[in-house]
From TrEMBL:
Keyword RNA-binding included in the entry's annotation: no
Protein name per UniProt: UDP-N-acetylglucosamine 2-epimerase (Hydrolyzing)
Molecular function per GO: hydrolase activity, hydrolyzing O-glycosyl compounds
Top-level EC class: hydrolase
Domain UDP-N-acetylglucosamine 2-epimerase intervals: 23-364
Gene: neuC
């Protein structure tokens, strides 16, 4: 079975990994990776190198990102991605192509495949993020897909409502948590030395723009900057840098100013990679930001998360998430509260057993029916 894997960022590649590792050694599949988006961006870590280091030999690359991140640049990148994938789909037939999540460039690649009759399998459909235009892109991808693998039954029902189809929608849980029970973090001293982290507690931070509130992002970035300056007086701060979203550079500039002003209190990471990121989550005191990993994954590490603003609003949350306004004093106050908590011992609503195995089983059954 010839399988294509659409991956446009470090984030979706990390989620895919348990599935890719199993398909790679399964003779039933002839797997090809289609890398585009920020994988090919030097300013975002050029994460194409990570896939090559992981031993994936058949990697197609499609470059379509424009360096600016204003509204016109995002729209232009979307259009350019559609055009380039039109050429790609014409000469690259697949039995099934995996797509994941809600990125604008992922949506563009999928929309371009519709006239060619490409059969897509969508992972993480049916979710809601009211503070990001990704909500629209996610549903576009869902409507263009033939198979659907959702992270909860609530999301499964939403996909069914969107597609009017029951047979091809499966609640399998979050793929990124597939190996979480067997995950062993990098030994602490080795990890700290590798990234030059001081031997003290740290907070793990990831902020992205609120793309439904474009005009507010300058204010939000300043609130983030001021709050982190105060927080860094009490605890070391590790920041993973924003994705290529509308006005992401506003946040990058604020973060870089913090690093310049307080060089010994901040560590900025462009691309951790999954093992390093999970190790950082394991050793972190708490998480702070507005990223999906705080919602989907942190509970499995026993970590409390301060989720600021509306970017993740609408996503189902486990009991470890503390929500607050995207405002300096609110962020500081809720971080102070979360820092006093012990380890989170509740369940993760996104966890299910054998996610990758179940996806593979369903895909093989799907192949037999076409």
């Amino acid at each position: 079975m010839r399988i294509g894997i659409l991956t446009s960022s470090r984030a979706d590649y990390g989620i895919y990994l348990p599935l890719l590792q199993k398909m790679k050694i399964d003779s039933f599949f002839e797997m090809e990776i289609i890398a585009f988006g920020t994988h090919l961006s030097k300013s975002h870590g050029f994460t194409l190198n990570d896939m090559e280091k992981d031993g994936y030999t058949c990697i197609h690359t499609i470059s379509s990102m424009i360096s600016n991140d204003d509204e016109q640049a995002i729209a232009s990148s979307y259009g350019l991605t559609v055009l380039k994938f039109a050429n790609f789909w014409e000469s690259h037939p697949y039995d099934l192509v995996f797509c994941l999540g809600d990125r604008f460039e992922m949506s563009a690649a999928v929309q371009s495949g519709i006239p060619f009759g490409i059969k897509f399998a969508h992972i993480h459909g049916g979710e809601t993020t009211l503070g990001a235009i990704d909500n629209v892109y996610r549903h576009q991808i869902t409507l263009a897909s033939k198979l659907h693998f959702t992270a909860t039954d609530v999301f499964r029902k939403k996909v069914i409502n969107l597609t009017d189809s029951v047979e091809d929608v499966f609640d399998v849980g979050s793929l990124s948590l597939n190996d979480i029970k067997s995950f062993v973090p990098i030994e602490k001293l080795i990890f700290f030395e590798k990234f030059n982290i001081p031997n003290e507690d740290f907070i793990l931070v990831t902020f992205h723009p609120e793309t439904m509130s474009v005009q507010e992002n300058v204010k939000y970035a300043q609130a983030m900057k001021n709050a982190l300056a105060t927080i860094s007086k009490e605890i070391f701060v590790i920041i993973t840098m924003p994705n290529a979203d509308t006005q992401g550079s506003v946040y990058r500039e604020a973060i870089e100013k913090l690093k310049k002003k307080y060089p010994n209190r901040f560590l900025l990471i462009e691309n951790f990679g999954k093992i390093n990121y999970f190790s950082a989550m394991h050793y972190a005191k708490i998480l702070l930001g507005n990223t999906s990993s705080g919602i989907l994954e942190a509970a499995s590490f026993g970590k409390y998360v301060v989720n600021a603003g509306d970017r993740q609003k609408g996503r189902i949350q486990s009991g470890n998430v503390l929500n607050c306004e995207f405002e300096e004093r609110a962020i500081i106050s809720v971080v102070d509260k979360a820092m006093k908590f012990e380890k989170y011992n509740g369940k993760n609503v996104y966890f299910k057993e054998r996610v990758a195995d179940n996806i593979i089983k369903i895909v093989k059954e799907f192949y037999e029916s076409i």
